[in-house]
Amino acid sequence: MRTIHSLKELRTILRGYRRQDKTIGLVPTMGNLHEGHISLVRKAAESADVVVTTIFVNPMQFGANEDLDKYPRTLVEDQEKLEAAGNTLVFAPPVEEIYPEGLAQQTKVIVPEVSDGHCGASRPGHFEGVATVVTMLFNMVQPDLAVFGEKDFQQLAVIRKMTRDLFMPVEIIGAPTIREDDGLAKSSRNGYLSAEERKIAPVVFRTLEATAEKLADGRTDFHTLEGEAEQSLSAAGLRPDYFNIVNSLTLKPASPDDHELTILVAAFLGTTRLIDNLSVTR
Ligand SMILES: Nc1ncnc2c1ncn2[C@@H]1O[C@H](COP(=O)(O)OP(=O)(O)OP(=O)(O)O)[C@@H](O)[C@H]1O
Ligand SMILES: CC(C)(CO)[C@@H](O)C(=O)[O-]
Ligand code: BAL
Predict the structure, then answer these.
(1) CATH number for the 2-175 domain, one of 3.30.70.1530, 3.40.50.150, 3.40.50.620, 2.60.40.10?
(2) pLDDT in tens, 14-25
(3) Domain map of the chain by residue range?
(4) Counting ligands in written order, which one lies closest to the CA of residue 32?
(5) Residues 142, 168 contacting (CB under 8 angstroms)
(6) Catalytic residues
(7) How far is the C-alpha of 153 from the C-alpha of 162, rounded, in Å?
(8) For residues 53 and 91, is the Cβ–Cβ distance under 8 A?
(9) Residue 269 DSSP one-character state
(10) Which of this chain's residues are annotated to bind ATP (predicted)?
């Protein structure tokens, strides 16, 4: 497995693979890899000859008061995990390689509607930053397929729409959320939690499960369910950002005759913002 940092090198190596008719799978990440990321690499390797994992903490998707500076950067450990998972190539560019003219000068990609609520409402400009950098990575790597986690449910919906609307020739594959034994979704940001907070954190998934059960029983009083769930989160010591029951495809508020529902949650535990989701078919 090779790790490279320049676009020039990336293009040269990928040209070689294409000449050999090898299919290319892309796994975009921000690094500090855990089993969730590794499951994406394995999934990409099932369908592509070559897997390119990118590690780039994208400044454009962070708000001014967010954790860009303290986001964990652990390239050496990440490389070891990727090598063991059968990854082919790691592309870990410095910021200047991706945004040579700076963020203010950068052409951007906006994905309307699906970017608007939930995390898009709480993190203005976030999905613009995600859509822009993912477009750039698609253009740099020109993959046949790209794998994204369902843990970031809205992000996956944004990328699916963007790919469809802009006729990008990339197959988008979603991969299920990998969890700790107590249900907490694996996330790089879990590393910010204190030991005390880590004990509380699984309540996020337990609240999702409790609400999913009520939805599966046929409940349609969505606002009541959302309110009850927010109360459970608050009672456990979290500060809910949102808890929304939505149509799984549009991400708009659920209506009683929807069959595919998804519960989206974001909540602060201390200063750490946790997100998770759970889908229900009924
Ligand atoms: N627990 C998980 N299971 C499956 N996929 C995951 C999981 N966590 C992250 N991913 C996916 O890995 C890719 C890279 O995500 P990212 O590097 O932001 O990881 P993260 O752990 O979610 O970090 P953060 O804490 O910043 O949200 C995304 O497609 C994301 O959905
Ligand atoms: C897709 C992504 C790598 C774009 O920076 C990021 O949003 C992430 O890690 O989910
Ligand atoms: N996993 C999504 C990347 C972010 O929170 O910025």
Answers:
(1) 3.40.50.620
(2) 999 999 999 999
(3) 2-175, 188-281
(4) 1
(5) no
(6) 37
(7) 14
(8) yes
(9) E
(10) 30-37, 149-152, 178, 186-189
Q: Ligand 1 — pocket residues by CB below 6 A?
A: 29-30, 36-37, 39-40, 148-149, 151-152, 175, 177-178, 185-189
In this structure, the strands spanning 145-149 and 24-29 are parallel
pLDDT digits (tens, 9 = 90+) for 136-146: 999 999 999 99
Residue 257 CA, ligand 1 centroid: distance in Å: 31
Q: What is the ipTM of this complex?
A: 0.98
Instruction: Give residue 87's pLDDT band: very low, low, confident or very high (50, 70, 90).
Output: very high
* The one-letter amino acid at 198: R
Assigned CATH topology for domain 188-281? Pantoate--beta-alanine Ligase; Chain: A,domain 2 (3.30.1300)
